[in-house]
């Protein structure tokens, strides 16, 4: 956003009145104008440049050969040349240093990212093996033991060895206990009624 007064482009001019254009007094008006312009055609695609912002400077030489010596003092007529070349050299060195640190940071980040990716892959592989072992054990158990529940409350477990085990299931035991309790309660109630 720029400060000061700006005029809107010719596309935004009011053709009916023949006016020169809208005057934007402050940043709020400029922002309002830009939003209205964007919302006037919402189906239009926006082209947004997402490139990383780098310093766009001309190619920097590795060494600056034209650095003047400090004998061009403040009283001489060559001082402005010395001062400019010194600033140029300082800028060159700072940009080289900045580029070097950014390159090192990128390399460190890539190494760290690769290391984390390896750790994640190892953990994922370990968990995958655990799941596979559990699945195989479950399938093996299902294959070895086939359970058949009869209506009489007896579970027949047939192994692959063709042996048959007969044992009452937990449900049938609970049902038998309930039946016994109900029968005992009825007997006690009937006994009480008879005794009266």
Automatic annotation (TrEMBL):
Biased composition (Polar residues): 1-10, 185-196
Pfam families the record matches: DUF1168 (PF06658)
Region (Disordered): 1-23, 132-196
GO MF entry, a single one: double-stranded RNA binding
Regions annotated as coiled coil: none
InterPro entries: Prkrip1
A GO CC term assigned to this protein in UniProt: nucleolus
Compositional bias segments (type: Low complexity): 149-160
Name the record gives this protein: DUF1168-domain-containing protein
Classification of source organism: Eukaryota, Fungi, Dikarya, Ascomycota, Saccharomycotina
